[in-house]
Amino acid sequence: MKAMILAAGRGERMRPLTDDCPKPLLAVGGKPLIVWHLERLATAGFREVVINHAHLGSLLEETLGNGSRWGLNIDWSPEPPGALETAGGIANALPLLGIEPFLVINGDIFCDWNFARAANIAKQMTTDLAYLVLVPNPPQHPTGDFALGAGRVAAEGHECLTFAGISVYQPRFFAGLTPGQPAKLAPLLRAAMATNQVGGELHAGRWEDIGTPQRLAALNRELHYEPAV
User: What are phi and psi of 185, to 5 degrees?
Assistant: First the structure.
């Protein structure tokens, strides 16, 4: 099974930290945020990883290389300036991801969800197009994104949870998109939810959206790490 890490975002809310550093390379606990993902993917048994990039993408490639230091093989999926949005970026990378279900992880989260579970989830996706990991709503996103009930994810419900940025997809979920063209993920998900083709679960463990300098600093304080100025 392959995994894709989404790393093409500009990181506007992280400025000025991201003016000269891609957000996935910002230090968390003494190492780049994206390295936490790579280490955990390797531990979970993954060997093939695709990473997209746009803003300062050459720095990502120079820093991470081919992934061999983690026992991984990294394939790079460059995007034009401004990137292709989430669904557009995944569609653009489909030739690298193959014909089997694949795991997708946002590059700007810090989470302890067990990536090894993705393989079993993929085996059970006979009719589903997507499987989403949801988390309790954080203070910065109190209204959530989607509703969860009996393992099914819906666009609306009594109580909405927050999409964790961790998911498993069938390649055909993106078949209608044009490679190289921007496309948002939420409309695709809502369309699949309308036909009951999205499963999911609640992750009650650790999850952080590293979206602002303040949240990054708070996490580093918790991890007893002070980045060099």
Answer: -85, -40
Look at residues 83, 88, 115 and name the one whose alpha carbon lies nearest to residue 102: 115
Q: Are 7 and 56 in contact (CB under 8 A)?
A: no
CB 111 within 8 A of CB 206: yes
Q: Is 220 helix (H, G, I), strand (E, B) or coil?
A: helix
CB 38 within 8 A of CB 64: yes
pTM over 0.85: yes
Residue (of 118, 122, 190, 184) closest to 153 by Cα position? 190
Question: Residue ranges of the domains in the chain?
Answer: 2-222
Please spell the DSSP secondary structure of 19-57, one letter per residue.
SSS-GGGSEETTEEHHHHHHHHHHHTT--EEEEEE-TTH
**Phi and psi, residue 200, nearest 5°:** 180, 180
CATH code of 2-222, in short, is 3.90.550.10
CA angle 179, 197, 191 (to 5 degrees): 55
- The answer to whether 209 touches 138, Cβ cutoff 8 Å, is yes
Token pair belonging to 80: 């034009």
- 140, 138, 98: which is closest to 122 by C-alpha? 98
Written as tens digits, the pLDDT of the chain (229 aa) is 999 999 998 767 777 777 888 889 988 888 999 999 999 999 999 999 999 998 888 899 999 999 999 999 999 999 998 889 999 999 999 999 999 999 999 999 999 999 999 999 999 999 999 999 999 999 989 999 999 999 999 998 888 999 999 999 999 999 889 888 999 999 999 999 999 999 999 999 999 988 888 888 888 888 865 555 4
